[in-house]
Amino acid sequence: MGRKSKRGGGVKTGPPVKGEEKETDVPPTLSKSAKREVTELVTQLLEICSKPPASGAKELEDYPEIHGLVEKIRKIQSSVNSPPQNREELFPAFLEWLHKNGVDTSAVEIASFPGFGYGLKTTKDIKEADLLLKIPRKLMLTVDSAKMSVLGELISEDKILQVMPNVTLAMHLLIEFKVADSFWKPYLAILPHTYNTPLYLTPEELQHLKGSPTLGNSITQYRSIARQYAYFYRLLQKHPAAAKLPIKDNFTFDDYRWAVSTVMTRQNLIPGKDGEKQTFGLIPLWDMCNHSNGIYTSDFDIENDCSLCYAQQDCSAGDQLFMFYGPRSNGEFFVHNGFVYAENDHDRLSLKLGISKGDPLFEAKSELLAKLNLSASRSYFLHCGDYPVDGELLAFLRVFCMDEDTLRAEEKKENHENLMELETPLSQDNEEKVWNFLETRAALLLKSYPSTVQEDEIQLMQTDLPTTLQMMLKLRIGEKRILQQTASFTSQRKHMMKERSGQINS
Ligand SMILES: C[S@@+](CC[C@H](N)C(=O)[O-])C[C@H]1O[C@@H](n2cnc3c(N)ncnc32)[C@H](O)[C@@H]1O
């Protein structure tokens, strides 16, 4: 992405107001026969992607077919993609735009940081909790600004745009990108032109995630974006409210995955204009900050209608500034943010667990779990660090392993918080079943990866590995360490139980 405007397009002084005429680039378009071919492929794509999503191994089965169709579409559309621009050359114009719109950037500079892309560095020594940036709402691309834009009419007619704010934001971004005199042009021009999200990976590359639950999540994301693309391609062709949109005749898959990836990797929750409901927005400059462990240091000043960014910690002039994106696992960072963070304090591995409907105690167990706001079938988590098992997983496993007598005795209690506490086991027998089950599950999951942690670590030491392969190796290593940690935790617990019951002498 990062297309050059064929016209100069002066910088505007404010976001568009509804009904305002838009100047658009004259976009390159496909020949009639190429368009026909794309339309046919899009129909096939929509058909496959609209089948109820298969689960388990089947979910992987139709992915090559979906990917193949998308690649055919991309090949035909490649003639209308233009080469990316150099982001760095466009930073001065971006900063000028920020200054013109009242942003004080004196505390920060945009700089390149190997392994992070670009980021923010401090220009002076700062103290934890110092205010670093104040970005007014009028500079943000938001669901509200989308409604006020040329896309507004289509939003009011289309259900998907009404219920999926991130999709609305992606379409808004893409449209503004094609508008030569967009108010946001200096910001749009400095956005990355490519990403490391799963939308940019081939089925062969994704094979490096074999055994990892992140493989299925990556494919689910690809499938859902392919379906959205096909849906919007047809909507843009057919809907009268799309007639004026600058993407009507040149809406490519590459454009859509770029817009979706931009939104996924940079969006933030902000209060809506009414000050009540939260909405999604892209916040210029603020979104140049990379992630590290820490705490949330952003706020929104409702009175002055601007977002505020505070320093996470003391920094010396020239240090990189970081922001905490949230307690996400590396699998989530990989799928939604296009990076993996080896030092992630919040890394965790999802574990799909369910009580069998064939269990004669299924109903009673489900009811008991519901009292703890837990479900009889869902993803639970194993965490990195010394305590991989949290209260929710522990309670699920204790209920899952209950025999009828233990279940009936538990039902008589007023509250069941004890089920979530490590040091309040129900019985020796129940606890033994819990740890045996988890030990076996962790061992099985470890076996499903084709390589060991040591082999991954050796591979990761190789120089010149593609960034995406490095990411997948780091992800696999983190997941396997969690499973190893789980295995040693379960054997510790079993040992402790035996000690306590006097089966072994301490
Ligand atoms: C909000 S943007 C931050 C600015 C971005 N680095 C840029 O060049 O525009 C988020 C993106 O930055 C990168 N990133 C953020 N934190 C990172 C980290 N801890 N390690 C590696 N990449 C990171 C990822 O590419 C992510 O998708």
From TrEMBL:
It is found in: Cytoplasm. Coiled coil: none annotated. Its EC number is 2.1.1.85. Keywords: Actin-binding, Cytoplasm, Methyltransferase, S-adenosyl-L-methionine, Transferase. InterPro entries: Rubisco_LSMT_subst-bd, Rubisco_LSMT_subst-bd_sf, SET_dom, SET_dom_sf, SETD3, SETD3_SET, SETD3_SETD6_MTase. One of its GO terms (cellular component) is cytoplasm. It catalyses: L-histidyl-[protein] + S-adenosyl-L-methionine = N(tele)-methyl-L-histidyl-[protein] + S-adenosyl-L-homocysteine + H(+). GO terms for molecular function: actin binding; protein-L-histidine N-tele-methyltransferase activity; protein-lysine N-methyltransferase activity. It is an enzyme of class 2 (transferase). It holds the Pfam family SET. It comes from the Eukaryota. GO terms for biological process: methylation. Residues 106-326 form the SET domain. Residues 1-34 are annotated as: Disordered. Belongs to the class V-like SAM-binding methyltransferase superfamily. SETD3 actin-histidine methyltransferase family. This is protein-histidine N-methyltransferase. It comes from Pomacea canaliculata.
